[in-house]
Amino acid sequence: MNINFLISNNNILKNDYINMDSNYFWYKTNNIEKKIMESDLVGLHKERLLDNSLSESTVLSNIHIYEKWRDYLHKKTMLENNYCSIKETNYKCLKCPHRNMHVNYALKVYNITTDEFFDNRYKLPINITSKVPNEKFKQWFKEFINYYKNNPKSNGEMRSPNTIATYIKQIKRWQTVMNQNPGVNLDFADSVKVKEITNILEPISPLELQHLSTEILNNSSFYANNVLSQKRLKSIFFLMLQTGLRLNEVCLLNKDNLNMLNDGTGELKILGKGAKERIVGVSQETIILIRDYLAERNSKIIDNNPALFLNSNFERINRWSIIEMLKRISKKTGVKINAHKIRRTSATLRVQDGADQQDLKNNFGWSSDKVANRYMASAKNVESINSQKKFNPFVTNQTILENQSDSSD
Questions:
Q1: Domain-wise residue ranges, the chain
Q2: Domain range 206-389, CATH class
Q3: Distance between CA 177 and CA 51 in Å, rounded?
Q4: Which 3-state string (H, E, C) describes the chain?
Q5: CA geometry: angle at 302 spanning 266 and 255, to 5°?
Q6: Exposed, middle or buried: residue 236 (CB in 10 Å: 0-12, 13-18, 19+)?
């Protein structure tokens, strides 16, 4: 579709187009009302996942996988294989570029309301995926997984085997949700097995962590452009490092989850994976940083927002804001970090500080001994490596010989 041609042939003033994006232009050109937003479709699937006893943090951390999968299905069903049911009506199939465009076009074609759509979205003719054979799903699923297995992320890094395993598990969950609809019986994902690899859990090294901590405390203006953002950066980084909170757990924190105690420490109520609550202890040093951030925030706005951390628009912070913050720190310090590596480092340091298996499970929200044991083993591995650096086989051998000589005398 040539945009310049359409502008000149559809009585749309060129100066009006200056304020249009391509989506707006598509809707206006095709005389379609945009009643349903992409966020509405995402939110609906999120609700169905939560109904399947998944915690909000689990759903939020993996919703991007569902979105990639649904974008991929739209491309396959609509743009490549033409499963579009609209072509069976008196209306023309528009090869809608995005899935919410197709939804809004379907509202017009079938003359249905938004409420009717949400009540019947998994039924024909609205639900195109109902027309796709199971074998075709199986083919597409393997292509989808192979694409993300063989192509790098935006930062140039390849996805780890465990990341690919997560992709497979989430699409299996999507299949489970779909099979709850009458007449749907998909099993395309059953044939793909999940193979998780037990990696050595490498924390941030002591020297790198010292460098990071010094930089963030003393030079935060290099990583955030105003005082409030700088104080938020310090609070989030050191809270994550000290407590090992997951990324989404940080985003979901409310101010009333934090109980600041008289001795200067604090206790923080966390809603973790599987909707399980736990209490973590917050050090005096971290409480000082959080108090400082909240005081600065209160000086900027009338603060009625319950969230503990807000973004630059004074709305609850989301995972992408924190991810970008950590990327900036990584780029400027040369130390590669992400939320999970900070959590891994926190757990390793807790073990080296004397924490046992039950401490780890309590503090980090693991229900499995297996996961806690991995971190125990990882911390021991760090100690073993440091010990081996000091190991001199010749000195040890000489000591043995001397001891043997002494005993023979």
A1: 24-191, 206-389
A2: mainly alpha
A3: 9
A4: CCHHHHHHHCCCCHHHHCCCCHHHHHHHHCCCCCCCCHHHHHHHHHHHHHCCCCCHHHHHHHHHHHHHHHHHHHHHHHHHCCCCHHHHCCCCCCCCCCHHHHHHHHHHHCCCCHHHHHHHCCCCCCCHHHHCCHHHHHHHHHHHHHHHHHCCCCCCCCCCHHHHHHHHHHHHHHHHHHCCCCCCCCCHHHHCCCCCCCCCCCCCCHHHHHHHHHHHHHCHHHCCCCHHHHHHHHHHHHHHHHHCCCHHHHHCCEHHHEEECCCCCEEEEEECHHHCEEEEEECHHHHHHHHHHHHHHHHHCCCCCCECCECCCCCECCHHHHHHHHHHHHHHHCCCCCHHHHHHHHHHHHHHCCCCHHHHHHHHCCCCHHHHHHHHHHHHHHHHHHHHHCCCHHHHHHHHHHHHHHHHC
A5: 20
A6: buried
pLDDT band at 223; cut points 50, 70, 90: confident
Residue 48, Cβ neighbours under 10 Å: how many?
A: 17
Task: Confirm if 105 and 97 have CB atoms less than 8 A apart.
Answer: no
The predicted pLDDT at position 17 comes to 43
Contact 296, 226 (CB under 8 A): no
Please write the tens of the pLDDT for every residue from 17-42: 444 456 888 898 899 999 888 777 76
Residue 259: closest CA among 245, 279, 231: 279
Radius of gyration of the chain (CA): 27
Mean pLDDT of 236-252: 93
Distance CA 138, CA 55 (A): 28
In this prediction, residue 15 has a pLDDT band, given cuts at 50, 70 and 90, of very low
Q: Determine the average pLDDT of the residues in 239-266.
A: 94
Joined tokens for residue 366:
């693991």
The lowest-confidence range among 36-45, 72-81, 247-256 is 36-45
The residue whose two tokens read 């005993």 is 407
Percentage of residues of the chain with pLDDT beyond 90 = 32
Range from 144-153, 234-243, 298-307, 313-322 that averages highest in pLDDT:
234-243
